[in-house]
Amino acid sequence: MLIIDCEKCTACGVCETSCAFGAISVPEDCAVVNESCTLCGACVDNCPEGALHIHTIDKHPQTDISDYSGIMVFAEYRHGKIAPVSYELLGIGRKLADKRCVQLIVILPGGKVTEYTDSLIAAGADTVLLAEHPFLEQFREDVYANILETVIRQYKPEVVLAGATAIGRSVIPYVATAVDAGLTADCTRLEIREEDGTLLQTRPAFGGNIMATIECPQTRPQMATVRPNVMAPAQPDPSRSGEVVHLPLTEELLQSQVEVVETVSSADDQVNIQEAEILVAGGRGLESAKGFTLLRELAVELGGSVAASRAAVDSGWIPYAHQVGQTGKTVSPKLYIACGISGAVQHAVGMQSAEIVVAINRDKNAPVFDIATYGVVGDLFEVIPELIKRLQEVKN
Ligand code: FAD
């Protein structure tokens, strides 16, 4: 809780202006805190009199962080292949491990996964832990979490990385709670402090308006989920060698409260804008679901897929699986054509690593032009049909 020392407080009001949550005010001669306080510490840092401090109750015994060493990656196996984000995690995991001169360990649960060992080692792993069992062919949150928890307790890695995918997002918080570790979700950048192994976990905060770098200095492992398509996978090196360990899987470990009755893939699951090389994205400027028919025509001509801003998704013009941005998907195509999209920061974080961005917008001051490689100032309902016509002419 936030403690205010009224003896020291001079009612200067600095705490009030430094609080982003409106949680502190100075009605008279001493500051007062309300229930909106998130214990972020901004007021404590800014108070010139040292009148504020945060009192924490240590619920957990102190972790001896020197017991922990190595970087661990949770690799995802889905529909008969390893999820691309797993190789991206190995790319960043390798860099972190080299900086700390420690092992890069990858844990891969699944039904029949031995055949992927070589590709994981080529991608940077020193040790591959295989949790292979027919029961693991289907994802069950509780079983995957039990396996990860057991492995973390045994191997004591200083860092655990997972993809910010549907699977990673559901299983990793479960594990972090079980091992009393800090967890930073949806990281877009990771670095490690060589001297003490502190993981610097950067992610968008306050609705994407700032990038926050988060540290978990007192507990281990330091756990982070990373958005797909943000980190580059390492170049595979088939000459690398590594250790392979088949984990013993006891019956107890495979106990589940979940019964998988049937697996049905929805039409949305077929949409994978994260793997498309060309994306034609539409926003509120499309005005209706019909606007996306025009966009689809352009996508067909270019051999690409259709993406969207949240405004278009929230309007019900296109399903959520197409949404790009902070609360949607992160994409990095070769070409991204943003049509009738203003370029809000929450959208930009999802597409700014595209190689070429073309923006079509009738407002020449739209922020999207700041991130665009090429900009077309004009009405999309005139520009897109003209573009389609030209593409057809070139083809014929
Ligand atoms: P607008 O901002 O309304 O822009 C429409 C643009 O179309 C304007 O620039 C206009 O000039 C142009 N236009 C209109 N008509 C035409 C025409 N005929 N021809 C050419 N141009 C035209 N947004 C996302 O996209 N993805 C996210 O994941 C996401 N997550 C969010 C998370 C949080 C916590 C919050 C607070 C917001 C999030 N948003 C997200 C919303 C974001 O802030 C913007 O509101 C949203 O991106 C705006 O979508 P837009 O660009 O389509 O619409």
UniProtKB/TrEMBL annotation:
The family database entries (InterPro entries) matched by this protein are listed as: 4Fe4S_Fe-S-bd (IPR017896), 4Fe4S_Fe_S_CS (IPR017900), DHS-like_NAD/FAD-binding_dom (IPR029035), ETF_a/b_N (IPR014730), ETF_a/FixB (IPR001308), ETF_alpha_N (IPR033947), ETF_asu_C (IPR014731), ETF_asu_C_CS (IPR018206)
The biological processes this protein is annotated with in GO are: fatty acid beta-oxidation using acyl-CoA dehydrogenase
Q: Which UniProt keywords apply?
A: Electron transport, FAD, Flavoprotein, Iron, Iron-sulfur, Metal-binding, Transport
What does the note accompanying the cofactor annotation read?
Answer: Binds 1 FAD per dimer.
Q: Where is the 4Fe-4S ferredoxin-type domain?
A: 1-29, 31-57
Q: Name one GO molecular function term.
A: metal ion binding
Query: What SUPFAM superfamilies does the annotation carry?
Result: 4Fe-4S ferredoxins, Adenine nucleotide alpha hydrolases-like, DHS-like NAD/FAD-binding domain
> What PROSITE patterns does the record point to?
4FE4S_FER_1, 4FE4S_FER_2, ETF_ALPHA
Q: Which cofactor does it need?
A: FAD
Source taxon at top rank: Bacteria
UniProt-annotated binding residues for FAD: 284, 309-310, 323-327, 340-347, 361
The entry's family comment says: Belongs to the ETF alpha-subunit/FixB family.
**Protein's name according to its UniProt entry:** Electron transfer flavoprotein subunit alpha
Please tell me the species this chain comes from: Desulfobulbus oligotrophicus
